[in-house]
Amino acid sequence: MNTDLEYLQQVLVRARSEVGKVIIGQEHVTDMALVAIFTNTHALIEGVPGIAKTLLVRTLARVLGCEFSRIQFTPDLMPADIIGTNVYNLQRSEFALVKGPVFTTFLLADEINRAPAKTQSALLQAMQERRVTIDRDTHELSPNFTVFATQNPIEYEGTYPLPEAQKDRFMLKITMGYPDRDEEMALAKRTLGDDAPEVVLDRGEVQGVITPEELAKLRRVLQQVVVRDELAAYIVEIVRKSRADEGILVGAGPRATQAFLLSTRVLAAMEGRDFVTPDDVKAMALPVLEHRLILRPEYEIEGLSVPEVVQRLLQEVSVPR
Questions:
Q1: Model pLDDT for residues 193-229, shown as the tens digit of each residue
Q2: What's residue 137's pLDDT?
Q3: How high is the pLDDT of residue 224?
Q4: Measuring CA to CA, which of 66, 158, 171, 287 is 20 to 30 A from 151?
């Protein structure tokens, strides 16, 4: 195996280990977040309040040596509050740029669906092009710029659903569930002592494993992970099948195919392989497709869920050998 690829795999193992010092359990969530980061894309995180969504992103930023900013989305949030604005400086008699929180590396857009569409759309250019336009001037963002947007799955009063174009720009949807009993018991014990998760992070006990410059280089190393033509065809068929399924009103587009291909490479590297397997594709199917599929209303009324539909798609497409 190539030396660079071995180093990438070591970095991923160390990153998971360092995040585990703060985040109790949630290994799958950590893996999916790393997939989004190492493919240079964005992720939508859904979970109830208090499940450590913000803490997860803060910890990942520390581990990967990147800057972190957080925006609390509210109904009165304006686009300028996100990207920044030019302010007149009386002493210098000129306008000066006051940068918004979008000028960072890892951005947590907390409860993104609480802001109106005009404000949500302020993130679109930043997410797609990694640059923003302020008063007709274009400003570059970090090449590692990654948005983690959170949603509360149980509270929809006073929210604005994300438009399909914006949801499609998120590579993955990561669902954070409750910890199991043992994990919650471990959290309870740590909270009573001096090693509560937030305290561990603030004390600097979490070590950085790479620099932002190394992160960009390691992404190119992923090209060495082999995706056989048969597996690429398998992914294409799954995505195309979503457009023909009787229970789906709107299927996944070509961006889902790209997300599938890129994400499976990271997953293979995490498992210490230099090749992608059908199991990698199956593991990424729900995170890649869940937020991109719109079910027909009549099927939703009957209780059909997106995870069930995704499972059906996987069963209907032949697995390559």
A1: 888 888 888 888 888 999 988 998 999 999 999 999 9
A2: 85
A3: 92
A4: 66
pTM: 0.91
Specify whether 180 is located in the same domain as 247: no
Do 22 and 106 sit in the same domain of this protein?
A: yes
Contact 45, 224 (CB under 8 A): no
Residue 271's domain comprises 225-321
d(CA 307, CA 169): 20
Phi/psi of residue 33, each to 5°?
-65, -40
Q: For residue 230, count CB atoms less than 10 angstroms from its CB and return exposed for 0-12, middle for 13-18, buried for 19 or more.
A: exposed
H or E element in which residue 87 lies = strand 84-89
Q: Which long-range contacts (CB under 8 A, 24 or more apart) does 183-192 make?
A: 183/24, 183/25, 186/24, 187/24, 190/24
CATH number of 276's domain = 1.10.8.80
Locate 74 and state its tokens.
């509210």
Residue in the block written with tokens 């990153």? 15
Distances in whole angstroms, Cα of residue 122 to Cα of each of 75, 80, 118, 212: 14, 8, 7, 25
One domain, residues 143 and 165: yes
